[in-house]
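User: I'm curious what two different proteins look like when written out as structure tokens. Can you demonstrate?

Assistant: Sure. I'll show them one after the other, since each token string lines up with its own sequence. Here's the first protein:
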Amino acid sequence: MAEMIGQISDELKEHAPFTFFGALTGIAIMLAIVYGGFLPQVASISENIFYVLHPAHVLLSASVTTALYVRYGNKKLWFALLIGYTGSIGIATLSDSIIPHLCEVLLDLPNRGLHIGVIEKPLLTNLAALLGIAIGYRYWKGATEFPHAGHVLLSTWASLFHVITALGATVDLVRIIGILLFLFLAVWIPCCTSDIVYPLLFTEKTEP
């Protein structure tokens, strides 16, 4: 247990800098949209963009979570399916939807709303999860080698476009700082949890 806690702490520390960078890319995109005068156009399609990025995040999360479990646990299909599905759908929903919605509520954004992929787009989201599980189960040796950067950026941008759906015509500096903080939190702990912590909870081995 102590070894697992130490590993979790190390992973969070290791991924914090790039997660912060990912959050900054989200803020840069948002500022370009807002101060470039594109907010009305982007806001009208931001939910559609979210439903491209969120399933992509689910797919990647499912493949990595499943592959890591198979690598350090066992190859029982039904259990790999359970770990991959709950790890991707549950944690991606937390990262892409619930934490961003909390941001919208606390910052009192005018058009706030909760968009949960597995409820609003169940076919798309579940197919993404199942495809990711299949990839992770079949190609478990390579599926964990996908750069963590890709997962961080997909999750950051999905969270961002969830928030953009709630923005009004303008956004002030206080809200920009608040959104930056929430983008960081929405990605940092959930992504490390999904990729590393969650599947290893069900194995007897730890990541070397």
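Here's a second, unrelated protein for contrast:
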Amino acid sequence: MELNREHFRLLSVFGNEAPHQSTISRWYGEFKRGRVRLSDDPRVDLKDLNLKILHEELGVRKLVSRWIPHLLTEEQKAAKVNWCHKTLDRFNSGNSKNVYSIVSGGELWIYCYEPENKRQLAVWVFQGEEKPTKVIRSRSVSKKMVATFYTTICLPKIITELRKINPERRINLHQGNASLHTAQKTRQYLSEENVELLDHPPYSPDLGPNDFFTFRKLKIRLRGRRFQSTEEAVDAFKNAVLYLPGNEWNKCFENWFEHMQTCINLHGEYFEKQ
């Protein structure tokens, strides 16, 4: 009865702006329980509360999946380890003067737009669980560099430049296992030019200096930029190459031999990029 009377009094003063009777009833209950404030209680940030529960009580973290090029078999891991041992022995862990005869090559697709990051791959991981991995899926492209172009334009230009001062210079060419690198036409051309082709274990970009070092640094400079044409993208790539100081190229080969030892220590498993 008292509640109805108070509701009527509020209606007579505030009209349609008066609180609903259910609201008045709720506040009556609050005052009977000892409440003395008219302001609302502070709102709880559900996002912060959920994160607190996940992190502090459940011990869960949100991690970005680690990208890997391939799900390696035990044989492929063993091949990586054997290659690392062989290369470290041949070049005395990078201390041999023969290191200066190595020319490392690779191929890199330049896109008119490169996404900025991979945060969309983040997943929740409980304490003690391993960081998730995800196999990289190559983008589809409409063209491929063929061995004919590689052996008539790319390689001759490089070899000519290297032998300008010393025509008899020894060259050990290290490159990946792309089809144009391993084609019979490529091998025949290198043999005719007295260039030794160093082998490379399959599915091992973590052991290719261009893949784990040079291309990575160049992509960082290009990431997030949009190019209106192929020519603009190529020019940006050239400028990024020229931007790298000389000591960075030396560091590339130093890291290469360190990567080999890391690969041996991890029994051929992929490891985080350095």
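A detail about the second structure: The first strand starts at residue 60 and ends at 64.
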